[in-house]
Amino acid sequence: MKDKRTYINKKEHGEDMTHENESKMTKEDRGPLDLTLLTEQYKADLKKYQDRETLYVKTQNQLDGTKAIVMEMAGTIRQIHGENENLKAEISRLQEEIQLLEMQTKK
Length: 107
Hints:
mainly alpha, 0% strand
């Protein structure tokens, strides 16, 4: 029997012949309990979780910002409503004063 490290041709001395009988494993050949397969699955799951967490934080920040804007706008609306009520009262007072002045000038 021929030793597998024996070179037949002179050109073969640069080739690595130690792994010539080993089989190549693909992802499909690995079983469900293969450690590298499990590690890859856990990394993929972790990446999905991190992406979901990032989306949650982004959405939460947008929600908080929107709430702050709505609260500020509500305060401004209340302030404008109060000013409008004051101006309506002032207009009514001035209209009464105009009517009184018109009555006095007619006399």
